[in-house]
Amino acid sequence: MADSKQVEAKAERTAARLAKRISAFSTAHGGAEGQVAYIGERGARIVLVGEDGGWGDLVAPSVEIARKAVEKSGITAHEDFDGEFAAKVKTGPYEWTRMAGIQVGGPSNG
Q1: Which residues pair with 34 in a beta bridge?
Q2: Handedness of CA 26, 28, 31, 34 (dihedral sign)
Q3: 3-class secondary-structure state, position 32
């Protein structure tokens, strides 16, 4: 069984890898903000929204690691995904088609 130092070192490496990906997203989108959400046994979801309205997400093995990654990346973290933060997300035709397909029972055939 791994000792606590090994577990902590692995968590640090995971947070550092995630922080690097967050920073790359931020650079590609002119800056970014994020929000961490617990998703159950799977861990935590880090939702990212770029200054240009682009968005994406990452999954971390725990909320603690996700928060550490966001902190290391230096982006602004939000408690909730609502209000002005959510309004920054820009969606395109793909997302609207996808959402409409889900609402009416699937994509149309023509």
Answers
A1: 48, 77
A2: negative
A3: strand
